[in-house]
């Protein structure tokens, strides 16, 4: 039986924010996806989380059904403020904030700017690029090309060579929803990967936190883990050995095992 309850909009931080809700019972969890991942593409993860958590999956501004415009601020601070405002609007308290990739960077900044109510923080393979650091390994044009191809009516035949191990349902959702990712939002988020210094936020994290690393992703290297641990000594680290950057797509069981080990009794 599906744990999906509904999708809804709320006005928070001055914009229309769209989210999907699963489960409706248990500890609260807010999931923030990555740079070109509308909320619906995380449905297979949220369905499972919804068995134990009151789970909310956000469409980050400029993606999915959340607000997008030529004038909207797509910077990291604005996205982090969205998370804080959404949590307040929904009455979330004592919740787990889980972010993947760009969403993990948003989570780091949100946990510093809006720590109230965040009980736990899960950072799934956040890009560790930044000022003076090595660039993010996936080129911007790869994201933009896929968005343009799907906007023009492309299908899963264009995606399958990139993600050959994904299920057909996962590929179809990606093909269906990629066109909703605003190109300027993608450009500005990618620029922020290299301009925003999330490492400066790490010593200020108050909530217990987990860094989940993709063993085959190439985004976080062993030296990055060592640096992050030095900045946030209380941070737990779990590596999903055989997974690429899209961890739950590559190793769903490994993703949930790492998450369960961290959340413990809350799971």
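-> sequence recovered:
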């Amino acid at each position: 039986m599906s744990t999906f309850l509904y999708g809804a909009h709320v006005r928070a931080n001055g914009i229309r924010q769209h989210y999907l809700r699963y489960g409706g019972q248990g500890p609260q969890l807010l999931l923030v996806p990555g740079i070109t991942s509308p909320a619906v593409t995380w449905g297979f993860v949220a369905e499972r989380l919804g068995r134990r958590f009151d789970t909310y999956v956000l469409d980050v501004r400029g993606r999915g059904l959340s607000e997008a415009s030529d004038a909207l601020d797509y910077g990291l601070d604005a996205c982090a403020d969205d998370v804080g405002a959404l949590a307040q609007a929904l009455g979330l308290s004592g919740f787990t904030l889980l972010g993947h990739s760009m969403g993990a960077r948003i989570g780091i900044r949100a946990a510093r700017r809006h720590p109230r109510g965040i009980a736990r923080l899960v950072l799934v393979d956040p890009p560790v690029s930044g000022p003076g650091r090595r660039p993010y390994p996936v080129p911007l044009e790869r994201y933009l090309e896929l968005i343009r191809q799907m906007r023009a009516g492309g299908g899963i035949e264009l995606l399958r060579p990139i993600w050959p191990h994904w299920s057909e349902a996962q590929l179809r959702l990606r093909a269906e929803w990629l066109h909703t990712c605003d190109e300027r939002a993608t450009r500005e988020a990618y620029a922020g990967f290299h301009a925003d210094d999330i490492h400066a936020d790490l010593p200020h994290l108050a909530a217990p936190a987990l860094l989940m690393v993709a063993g085959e992703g190439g985004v976080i290297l062993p030296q990055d883990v060592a640096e992050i641990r030095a900045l946030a000594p209380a941070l737990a680290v779990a590596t999903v050995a055989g997974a690429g950057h899209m961890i739950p797509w590559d190793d769903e069981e490994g993703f949930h095992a790492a998450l369960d080990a961290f959340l413990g009794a809350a799971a």
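Residues 4-266 form a domain with the Rossmann fold fold (CATH 3.40.50.1820).
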